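From the methods appendix. Each design record in this collection lists the tokenized structure first, followed by the designed amino acid sequence. Records were kept in a plain field format so they could be parsed without special tools. The example shown here is representative of the layout used throughout.

RECORD:
FOLD TOKENS (159 positions):
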């Protein structure tokens, strides 16, 4: 779905569900990570997370659009469009919008390369993301000499 198709969808939902036109801009914002959508008070635009469409389908997208349109129409009517107000909750229930967006599916983190250093005296292990100068660094426990052991590939730092 393109931004133009999203714009037409928002305008159609606004007329059908709220009986009022949507006269501002609606667009996909891929930078949204933890939310389904966002209504901007300054310019009255609506931003939608494109992951909601790809991960959960059009029914969820419509619910999120209705949620953001509740903020939009209440704000333009001079009322508070905050989630906690009774007017917002009642309007959201009337139009059948989503109260909460589903959690976006996060991408799996990429594995990193960790450098393993071992103290020659006490055997303490140190994992570091970057190589260190072993001629300058010593063990924090016994001040013994550190030796590079190997490179370990893991998602998070090994213990």
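DESIGN:
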């Amino acid at each position: 779905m393109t931004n133009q198709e999203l714009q037409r969808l928002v305008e159609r939902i606004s007329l059908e569900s709220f009986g009022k036109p949507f006269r501002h801009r609606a667009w996909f914002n891929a930078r949204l990570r933890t939310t389904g959508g966002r209504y901007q008070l300054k310019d009255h635009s609506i931003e939608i997370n494109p992951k909601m469409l790809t991960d959960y389908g059009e029914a969820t997208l419509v619910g999120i659009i209705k949620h953001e349109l509740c903020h939009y129409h209440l704000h333009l009517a001079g009322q508070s469009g905050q989630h906690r107000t009774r007017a917002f909750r009642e309007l959201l229930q009337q139009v059948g919008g989503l109260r909460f967006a589903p959690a976006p599916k996060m991408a799996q983190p990429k594995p990193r390369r960790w450098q393993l250093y071992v103290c020659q005296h006490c055997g303490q292990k140190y994992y570091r993301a970057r190589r260190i100068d072993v001629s300058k660094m010593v063990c924090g426990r016994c001040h013994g000499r550190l030796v590079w052991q190997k490179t370990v590939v893991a998602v998070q730092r090994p213990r």
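APPENDIX NOTE: The first strand starts at residue 26 and ends at 28.
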